[in-house]
Amino acid sequence: MGRVGLGVAAGCAAATCAIAAALVARRAAARSRWRRAVALLREFEDGCATPPPRLRQVVDAMVVEMHAGLASDGGSKLKMLLTFVDALPAGNEEGTYYSIDLGGTNFRVLKVEVGDGSVVTRRKVELPIPEELIKGTIEELFNFVAVTLKEFVEAEDGKDEQRALGFTFSFPVRQTSVSSGSLIRWTKGFLIEDVVGKDVAQCLNEALARSGLNVRVTALVNDTVGTLALGHYHDEDTVAAVIIGAGTNACYIERTDAIIKCQGLLTNSGGMVVNMEWGNFWSSHLPRTPYDISLDDETQNRNDQGFEKMISGIYLGEIARLVLHRMALESDVFGDAADNLSTPFTLSTPLLAAIRKDDSPDLSEVRRILQDHLKIPDTPLKTRRLVVKVCDIVTRRAARLAAAGIVGILKKLGRDGSGIASSGRTRGQLRRTVVAIEGGLYEGYPEFREYLDEALVEILGEEVARTVTLEVTVDGSGAGAALLAAVHSSNRQQGSI
Q: Where do the Hexokinase N-terminal domain residues begin and end (predicted)?
């Protein structure tokens, strides 16, 4: 071989080595970026960890805050609002009642018939609230509601007969009686001025009078209280209600002598439903991550609703998106599609649930969601598995924290079994406890429900957990409000707490 041939061979060898070196370097870089994504996943999983000891700390913190909120207004992140509902349905109510459910951009009107131990919704209509009314005046909003109700009643009854109305108003309200209460603040995008501090039931009654309708508000409740009423109607062992859907809240039956901030001002029935507004609960024991802080910074109610932002449907998808976006920025797991994860709230909680539910071998549904909804094509299987894991971590933490909140209520009521050993009570003396529960996360997301139920057993122990039933209650905000109108319209006390 001549010098030229040797030179060509040497050049080819050098080029081959260079290519090989480049490939090795590229693979090493890819492995390094993948390791970074995995490290971020593990870091997030550790930050969201909710072992039983930590959950018990959350339980205890919840109980402390409940006591503080009952002792004084402003004494706790938990508002512990009095509802003045001191009588719940007992199953012997009778009659026809109407209810209005106003808690978002839609509102519902229902006709409910009660009797013979059953509650039947005879008719229901749901209408969107025009955008201009959400930011208009309270007179315009309630005139619209009153006219809609009048048309509904006249189509149903065709006669001018006075009817009791249950009004579900799912915004924070400081109640002064079972049928009156002043708005604390608007939420859910409502921006009607000069209403905070006004009696919303009175405002609606005035609109009803202007419309000429012979209907008046008999019970002013939120969706949680309505859920408790409907649950108690079907099962008298129901002592609390929890909403876990787009938002979250809880209420329960409290002894009137434990409500220190209103001693001497309450009825003698012995108990009253307390609206906890538990979405605002906060404790240093809650597993907060940098992604939760970023989420809080994105929201209009920054530094509020800390518990809700960890467990409710509005926020879970967004937490997962924040994690995936950081992975996209610090690794190449999504290729050039990192910018597609930069828009807040593009990953909804229903999509998160669909991702977590996908049990196909190749995660085909995850691929479709990433491609169709997030515009991330051609993801390898290992990346899709990574996405599923992120959604699972978010779901698991949310469900387990919700379980801790429920146990907090049980402990406040002395129904968590914590006094069994010291008092020497036998198994036969454990009381059966029912918690009415409503909301899409618990009802429609099996993995969320399984994680919550599993955590209840871990916190309470199997023996006590067997005495606790979470009973799905459908349409508490509608039928439950009508039931409370039935109870409190006649001043009967058969259903007293």
A: 41-233
Which phi and psi (to 5°) does residue 97 adopt?
A: -135, 155
Token digits of residue 240: 């609390």
Q: How far is CA 61 from the centre of its chain?
A: 19
> What is the mean pLDDT of the segment spanning 342-351?
94
Question: pLDDT of 294-312, one tens digit each?
Answer: 999 988 888 889 999 999 9
In a domain, 219, yes or no: yes
Residue 302, φ and ψ in degrees, nearest 5:
-60, 140
Amino acid at position 435, single letter: V
C-alpha torsion sign, points 69, 73, 79, 81: positive
In a domain, 72, yes or no: no
In a domain, 129, yes or no: yes
User: How many domains, in total, are found in the chain?
Assistant: 1
d(CA 208, CA 228): 27
Q: Which long-range contacts (CB under 8 A, 24 or more apart) does 459-466 make?
A: 459/52, 459/55, 459/56, 459/59, 459/403, 459/404, 459/407, 460/407, 460/410, 460/416, 460/417, 461/417, 463/417, 463/427, 463/430, 464/416, 464/417, 464/420, 464/430
pLDDT at 23: 46
CATH number at residue 171: 3.30.420.40
Per-residue pLDDT band for 25 (boundaries 50, 70, 90) equals very low
CA dist 222 and 492 (Å) reads: 22
Higher pLDDT among residues 451 and 12, named by residue:
451
| N- to C-terminal Cα separation, the chain | 105
CA distance 380 to 30: 13
Question: Which residue range forms the structural domain that includes residue 230?
Answer: 82-234+475-488
Report the candidate in 349, 337, 343, 451 with the shortest Cα–Cα distance to residue 397. 451
Q: What is the pLDDT of residues 188-236, one digit of tens each?
A: 778 788 888 899 999 999 999 999 888 899 999 999 999 999 999 999 9
Parallel/antiparallel/unpaired status of strands 173-177 and 180-183: antiparallel
Residue 191 included in any domain: yes
Which stretches does DSSP call E strand in 263-338? 271-275
